[in-house]
Specification:
The protein has 4 domains: 31-101, lambda repressor-like DNA-binding domains (434 Repressor (Amino-terminal Domain)), CATH 1.10.260.40; 114-300, 2-Layer Sandwich (Beta-Lactamase), CATH 3.30.450; 319-413, no CATH class; 422-451. It is 50% helix and 13% strand. The protein has 20 helices and 10 strands. A hairpin with a 5-residue loop joins strand 3 (234-239) and strand 4 (245-254). The longest helix is centred in the last third of the chain and has 30 residues, at 418-447. The chain is elongated.
């Protein structure tokens, strides 16, 4: 292809330059593991070839690590050898080891509150020097960090969209190695989204725009498979910010809890792949043959519904303070009025809660007004969740009138959207079935003396 020839020509010219004198430098040279190495090496007056020999790697690979590429985890022996070469003190040696041992992080659960959006912005920025971005369910760019903007400036354009850029721009054809292969991967994603969201007008508009490009239209017409995301794909790109050097990267796709329909993507620069094996040791471009089917579409729809339902659950936690507040009224009727005009009295369950309890469902706020008479002419009122009430109903006391009220409580405790509610019910039923199966097996073990 013409684009591939152009890349080769540009790379030939760039290869003649001195990489140490590049006019454009990445943040990776000053931040992260690469920045540490560079600072330590400069302070020790050690050149790059000596540092590379200490690690037992090529000078080219070492140079890329200092520029921000993420290397394979260094062994303890490599760390000790480098520390000796650079004359690192005990604290610096400890930092070097920490960067190569790795760590595990359990992310906090969150909601779409403004402060959590700021936290998500911070998360994107802190991926430096790795490019990172946030996009919506139709790949419109919502946010990005400096490395992403430096490597791929198109994200700063108004209305920037990953799929539109990848499939229709000349720039993408130049930067992706084997653009046709990547085009098929993105078309698979579009067809997957179309199957999962057949009524999405915005998605339909995006597909129609892309089909106006002759090359993209040909890929669309010849690709019959689907694919959900590019998570874990290892591929090569030609990056203008690196003087058109070819780098190998890994795409990581995550779903933020506070924005369940968005995608948080980090592009990690890696080293080590040669020939038929990529930098992670897998078969190069194996992702090109991967495909999804109808079952995967159903799974994606269910996961989306669950993420939306979980988001609704986190919004519920924002109201904890309001639910915990108590007020005092003079009569149970005054308490019931707090549920609004559409309040639903629950006398049957109220009797089970005690002789002085009056319960009223507030559908608008999806809560239950629980009033209890403390003294004559004095009723304390508390807002509680429907689940709290359901959990306190004795199972042996479920009569027809109690069941009728329980059904209303359970439904109001589920997500408001029918699809999301059905998905949550299916999940709960699966969990209960597993619990029952285990209990039956334990009972059988006890009865047969094999416990």
């Amino acid at each position: 292809m013409v684009a591939q020839q152009k890349v080769r020509n540009v790379n030939d010219v760039a290869a003649k330059g001195n990489s140490e004198k590049r006019g454009s430098r990445l943040a990776g040279q000053y931040m992260g593991f690469g920045g540490l190495l560079r600072g330590w090496r400069k302070a020790a007056h050690v050149n790059q070839p000596r540092a590379a020999r200490a690690l037992g790697i090529s000078e080219r690979t070492y140079r890329k690590i200092e520029h921000g590429a993420t290397p394979p985890r260094l062994t303890s022996g490599q760390c000790e050898s480098l520390a000796d070469e650079l004359g690192l003190d005990a604290e610096q040696r400890h930092v070097l080891m920490l960067h190569n041992v790795g760590s595990a992080l359990i992310p906090p659960r969150g909601t779409a509150q403004p402060q959590l959006q700021r936290a998500l912005r911070l998360l994107i920025d802190r991926q430096m020097p790795s490019p990172a971005y946030l996009c919506d369910q139709n790949w419109n760019i919502l946010g990005f960090n400096s490395a992403m903007a430096e490597w791929w400036p198109w994200v700063m354009e108004p209305g920037a969209n990953l799929i539109r850029w990848a499939l229709t721009s000349v720039e993408a054809r130049t930067q992706y190695q084997d653009w046709d292969m990547h085009a098929h991967a993105y078309v698979k994603m579009l067809k997957f989204a179309e199957a999962a969201k057949p009524d999405d007008a915005t998605l339909r508009e995006l597909i129609e725009d892309i089909q106006k490009d002759p090359d993209a239209r040909q890929v669309w017409d010849t690709e019959s498979h689907m694919g959900e995301t590019r998570d874990g794909h290892v591929f090569r790109m030609n990056v203008p910010a690196l003087d058109w050097e070819t780098v190998e990267v890994v795409s990581h796709v995550l779903y933020p809890a506070s924005m369940p329909e968005a995608r948080f993507v980090v592009i990690t620069w890696v080293e080590g792949g040669e020939g038929e094996r990529d930098a992670l040791g897998g078969i190069r471009n194996a992702w090109a043959d991967a495909a999804a089917d109808a079952a995967d579409v159903e799974t994606a729809q269910r996961h989306t519904q669950n993420r939306v339902a979980e988001d609704a659950a986190t919004r519920w936690r924002r109201e904890v303070a309001a639910l915990a507040s108590r007020k005092v009224v003079s009569t149970p009727e005054e308490a019931a009025a707090l549920a609004g005009d559409k309040g639903v009295p629950m006398p049957a369950i109220g009797r089970l809660m005690g002789p002085d309890a009056r319960l009223t469902l507030d559908p608008a706020r999806r809560t239950v007004i629980w009033a209890a008479e403390e003294t004559a002419g004095l009723w304390s009122v508390t807002r509680v969740s429907p689940s709290t009430v359901v959990a306190r109903v004795p199972r042996a006391a479920i009569t027809d009138d109690v069941l009728s009220e329980l059904l209303a409580l359970v439904r109001i405790a589920l997500p408001a959207e029918d699809d999301a509610a059905l998905s949550r019910v299916a999940l709960l039923l699966d969990e209960r079935a597993t619990e029952q199966r285990i209990l039956h097996e334990v009972r059988d073990m006890i009865q047969t003396g094999n416990a």
